[in-house]
Structures are given as C-alpha cells and as structure tokens.
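User: Quick sanity check before I run a bigger batch. Here is a single chain. Can you write out its predicted 3D structure?
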Amino acid sequence: MATSPWPNRLLTGSPNPLGATWDGLGTNFAVFSAHATRLELCLFDPSGRREIARFDLPECTDEVWHGYLPNARAGLIYGYRAHGPYDPQAGHRFNPHKLLLDPYARRLTGEWRNADALYGYRINSPRADLSFDRRDSAPGVMKAVVADESFNWADDRPPAIPWSDTVIYEAHVRGLSMRRSDLQTNERGTFAAVGDPVFISHLRRLGVTTLELLPIHAFVQDRPLLQKGLRNYWGYNTIGFFAPEPRYLSDGTLDELRIAVRRLHAVGIEVILDVVYNHTAEGSELGPTLSFRGLDNASYYRLVADNPRHCVNDTGTGNTLNLSTPRVLQMVMDSLRYWVTAFHVDGFRFDLGVTLGRESYGFDPCSGFFDAIRQDPVLQRVKLISEPWDIGPGGYQLGNHPPGFSEWNDRFRDGVRRYWRGDPGQRADFAARLAGSSDFFDRRWRRPWSSINYVASHDGFTLADTVSYAERHNEANGEDNNDGHGENYSANWGEEGTTTDPVILDTRQRVQRALLATLFLAQGTPMLLGGDEFGRTQDGNNNAYCQDNEISWIDWDLLDQREGQALTAFVARIVALRHRHAVLRSPYFLHGLEEPAEGIRDIAWFDASGEVISSDSWNNAEERTLVLRRARRDDDGSVTILSVLFNATAEKHRFRLPPPRWATRIVLDSAAPEAPERDLDGEEISVAPRSLVLALAMRAG
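Assistant: Done. Predicted structure follows.
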C-alpha cells in the first residue's frame, strides 16, 4: 500500500507571503479571510479531477490563514474551502461546498463549466440568493497550481522609453494572430505569436515603441453570453490577478509570456498590460461563488451600506472590489509588483480607473490606491494609464487623476472625428486637442504625455468603420443592436458599409489618413488600434466584446492588398516624422509664451491667409481650416518650425504661411501619401479636400 508523501496535518507555516510559495522542500499556503471560521486546503491528482487530500489551515495571523506542507512541490494542484456564516443579509456568503480559487494563484488548470453547482445558492429557488446550495462545485471549476517562478532573464532590461517618445499599439493577444496562416495552429491566439519575429518586425516598421495588450489575466466566460452562443472576448472579467489566461499559453508554461516580453525588449519595445482591478468575474450577489465571494464577500466587495446583501455596482458589471480594505488593496499592489518583477512588464492601463480611486464619499485623486501606487518603489518607474471614467456618481474624471498617471482622452477621439467629419463649430476644440488638451491636463505640473490620444480603440469603431458606417451594427451581439456607443461621430460618406463607388472610397481613404496624421502630429501620447494601419474592419460592430471570431480577429490578408500596404507605409512615415522632429513631441505644454526665435512663438494659430486667428474667427462655427505652427530651439541654437495646414472642407484651399519666409519643405501631404518631400515653390500651399499638409522650416543657430 502506497504511503502518502505528506504528514497528517499541516505545519504552522507563515502568513507571508500570501499565496502558495514553494521553497524547494515544501510549500507554504497563506490566504486572507477576516470573517471565516475555518479554512481547508484541498489537493487534487495531476488531472485536477479527483480530490486526494484535505487539510485544515492550522493558524490565522492578522486575518491571514496559513500552513506549510512538507514535500509539496511545484505542479501541485489545489483549492480552498471556507467555513463561516452564510448570512447574505449581513454580507456573508460562506459555503464550504464550493471549491475556491486562491486569489494569489500564479497558474491555473482545468476549465470553468457553466453549471448551477458553481453558485452558493439554489438557482431558481423562490428564496433566490438567500437559499443555500450543497452541491460540490469542484468538478466544474479551475484549480490553482503551485508555480515554479525561476527563469533566466539574463541581461533583459526595460526599454524605459521616455513618455514624450512613446507610440502605443493597442492589441488583443488572441485577435492578433488567430488569422495568421503562417503560424502553427496551436500558436495562434497565444503569447507565442506575440513574440513572433514577423509581428515584432511589423511593430518596428511602424515605429511603435510600446505594445499595450488587452487583459491577459485569467478570466471567466459570462453565463448569459454562453447561453446565447457567444463568448467573452475582450477579457474584462477577471478571476485571477496573478495568473495569465490559460488559453493564451500554447505550451501551458508561464515562460511563454516571459519569452515574448524578452524578445520585445530586445528590440526596444515595451509591454503594457490592460488590467481590471475594479471588479471580478463573480458578478452581482446573484453571481457564482468562485473565489473572493466564498473567501470573504464582506471584505473583498463594496456592499450597499444599509443593505449588505447587495453589491455596489459602480462598474456596471455587478460588483466593485473594495480597495478600502487594506488586504484587498495589498492584493492589487502585490499583483502589480508581481507582473513587473516576474514578467518584466513596463506598465499598466487601468480599466475604469475612477473606480480604483473611489472612497466611501466618491472619487478622490488622493485615495488610498493612488497614494499607495505613487509611493511604491517598484511601480514608480513603470508607465501608468487610467481609463478616467466609470458609471458611478461623478464617474467622469478626465484630467483629474494625480501626477504620474496618463489618461485615455475620449475628448480627443470625439473632437478629432467631429472636425474631420465637417461638423460646425469644431475649430477651437480641435485646436485644444492638438495642443495636448492642456485645458484638462495642464495642472499639478503634469505633462502633455498625460493625454493618451486616440482616434479608435478596442471599445468602439475601428478607424475603417469610422469612415464607413454612420450607425452601429451590433446585431451579432444578441441585444437588438441596443448595446455599444450610440453616437460615434462617424460618417459613411455616401453609402453604409462596403461600397465599390470610387468617389466614396477616395473620400474614406482621405479621411482615414487625415485622422491618422492628426493623431501623430498632436501633442500627447498617440495610441494606434492594432490593424487600423491597414484598414481592419469589424463590419460596423462598435462593441465586439463578445465576438471571439472573425469579426474581432485581425485580418492580416489586408496587409497584402495595395490599399493596406499604402496605409501602413503612410503610418510608418508619419511616426518616423514624429520620432525625427522633437518639436512634434514637446515634453511641456506650449502656450505661446516663449519665443524660440525673434517674433516666433513656440505655438501659434493662423487662418488660411496666414493671419493670427481673431476671437470672432475662433467663434465662427463655419470655419473648417486651420494652421498650427510650433517652433523649437535646439541646444545648438538651431530653430525648427513645423506648420500643419488643416483643411476639413470638401474643397481645395490655398494657404499662405505666416512670416518669416524661411526656406520651407513640404514633408507630408496626406492627399498624396507617397509623394516625396519637396521644396516649397512660391508663397502658397494647396491643400486638398479633407487633407492636411506638414511644412518644415529650419535655420541654423
């Protein structure tokens, strides 16, 4: 008869660190629960199907339950069962029949099954969540795996791209490569494809400095979506803040992600993760019991003060993590540090960042979360980006985050789209967006890079759809086309969707190039949506969160077509100009108060005749032309002047540059994207309809 490799009971172990920590001789287990009365560690066979041992965690220190299991090695599969009161009306939902995932699990195995046994209460009971379900959930849940964190990083080091030089490429791990026919089938949709040399070469050709990945934390499929035959594609449904999504690992090892990061770092490209710490996959009080809810619902979630049976729903997903609980805040901070130290990521984009900054009285830029992250020695050196809104009271906080954070700027997206659509009264707002949105961000010594500028992102129309559809077309989502943004500031330019009309196609291509050029010529940090560089479409779906299929996956065949090649070359050309000319990426807000050369201010605005724009002209709702001039003196005394001439009308316009009449070169014409640079002959510049021209003048010091 085989003997067990383990003792009959756990040793005391240590409350630190949280999670399962293998030391070569055994594994220490530690998990937080302030209200549990007993915690059990459950071990499973290598298949994860059969429970083979169960131990009480013998000690609880400062609300952390812990124990040490000798001879327990990396690869061991485990979960927890928590005992305590099942009293939903007091906020407690302990149910030891539910196997719970370790909040600090580094690696997961198995799969989630859409089963009633995952719920702590009896589905369809007349008492709803006040009822109690005694079925064992273990057969239908993912389990944690004790991880071996060793990896040879050799001389890997962060690229540390200055914010002012940063160009972001937003992409989805799965969508990046599911349609890459040149990859092995098992590598498509995984981190192996993210580190593929062909993809990395594409980023380098574009001039991208930073790859931002949609959520890669382990997430759960939403039951309502599965019932409609759909899947959660974006991944904003996190269940494991320390574990990569298993589907993104082609070989099942954590090293696959590390190798991808190392390859990107080797060519100077950073990696930023889109992270979701505002809520979890357990949903509202009617959601499943998978981890946090079963370990300590009253601690992990914000509950309605006068009725703690219900979750606060500032996120629109059913629950809100309670970062006012010190141990929950610690979990988030530990998670962030883990991804920086264990995977060498270079920054984070915080989904619904306003929620993270909420205290009991509302959003506070001096909240515990912001204070903790800003003083952290590990996190101080990485890039921090916030989505500055949620659906709670006072949920729109663009420009109100603390120094050290940049913010997604939807005002840039909307204002730039409206200007190029030809909407009346947009010139003044367009000018403010081009200047880095200083009206929002120039406070507390923040810099222009605080504004993450974009004309399209994963949430909304792609660039091609912005110029091809006047209305959303989300029928495939199964919500009667009622989901997604109702106003996209888009236009189809004559026909909805695909067309063969050459006039419409020419207009769409012009507007796409104008939008892209505006993005990279504006102050702030530009972000390009993956695939927009060669005309990716979602067929008018502006909320493809549930479309894990060809609607969302990038079609790389477009890159082989003439139009896709031309647009990609245009993007690469604009980005190269941005990298080449420091005047396009000033580290400071410009207000026209400095004179790099006599009579030439660092920023100035003119009309098409070369005259300074008057107050009356700024207020003229029908003006759709504009000249932006920026100037910079370099250390050697030389002065560079770059003027951008914008024409959002349907007619060709003649522009005159304001004095001085220095020798000038036309370095970019969005209406003639392949035209070489040329010297300006004469004093006027012709700008085609819905196009812009970039003019360069330089004088030695």
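The two ends are 89 Å apart (CA to CA).

User: Great, the batch can go ahead then.
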